[in-house]
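Sorry, I am new here, but would you mind making up a protein's amino acid sequence and the tokens describing how it folds?
***
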Amino acid sequence: MAIQRQIDIPVRGRTRRVTRRLSLRPFVGAIDAVALSGAVVVAGGFDAVGVAYVLVALALLSLGAVRANRIDPRLSEDAGWLLGRTGIAVCVVLPFVGSSAAASEVLLLAPVAALFVAVGRGLAYLAVRAAKRRHLLGERTLIVGGGAVGADLASILRDHPEYGLRPVGFIGSLPEAGLPMPLLGAPEDLAEVVDRFEVQRVIVAFGEAGEGSLVSVLRACQPLGVRLHFVPRFFELGGLPEGAVADDLWGIPVVPLAHPALRRQARVLKRAFDILAGTSLLVLASPLLIAGAIAVRFSSPGPVLFRQFRVGRNGREFQILKFRTMFVNDAGDTAWFTSEDDRITPAGRVLRRVSIDELPQLFNVIRGDMSLVGPRPERPHYVGQFRETVNGYMDRHRVDPGITGWAQIHGRSRDLESIPERARFDNYYIEHWSLWRDVVIIARTVKTVLGAKG
């Protein structure tokens, strides 16, 4: 049974409650389902092909949740995207159609479905905008930065209720313009203010607050379920991130800050991948596990498995499993080991070079202590040190630790000097997570191991 306990180190961002947010995704999804069903009926009837088309099209349209949840969604901006998704659904279903008559029916579906979905979404967007204008829908909004841009945003949101954002105050400083909005705190108070005032949207207009000081406090808001947006620097010159989905608030663009690794759907998908891939790897690696256990057993007196407490997600401790590669000693929890350490056994040196010593961690993955990919877990002794000296170090603990990770495939895994770079790589991985990135990291790890680079 896994031994788990909570390390006495507060992890930034854990608060009492999660803010309730207004989500239009279920509403828009229902409209899409009705529109697609109507298109199938008009195009030729609700048979197996039609049902398959509706399911595929709904799945593709659901991938645009960011579009559906924009502050001010408009059909004119979505028309091309909707046409593409309904067309792709036809391409997916068409190869499985047996007769030419059924194929003609499916081909007819593309324009009809695009028209129906576009009309449905247009009506939905109009209804939502009208509800916001009448204050039937709205979200409490906090503005970070009291400079000129922050003041303009506050005035825009006050004068244009159709955006549905109700400004409650500023963080950082008050603008010089005399707006009837309070200053609710300093940037470092952001998470507390969001929790206390039940804020649902945060818009970062910078102002006097520097980017470096805002990174940690914005990450602290992520577990609260609040939506984060920022006004891009040099937006007057068109300085938007490439491919970004931005909202236009009366001429001021705001870009959503995505944190995909922290979403519930992402955690479920990643966990399912870990169980499936971890179990498969455990079966495939069983000969290596047996060989490693025999090598350790006859290398020196002591247990085959090395167990050590490490710090995982949200500061929770767990026991990591590895093949023992050193002579039994009492310094494992506090000493920093290197590849030249004279306490490494001859067999352990070989196991480390080809990373076989890490294979027992697959058991940690299967039982939920770790993930296949994520930040490498560290010992409590060093976590207590690094949290005080390394910027953003504790932000690594927002996700489950991994056997391998973005830092490891960039060669940042062994020496103390690389800890700041490891923290930067790990936080980049969290902010840009995708299942495909996990697959790439695993593939690059296998390549490194087969090259005997450790």
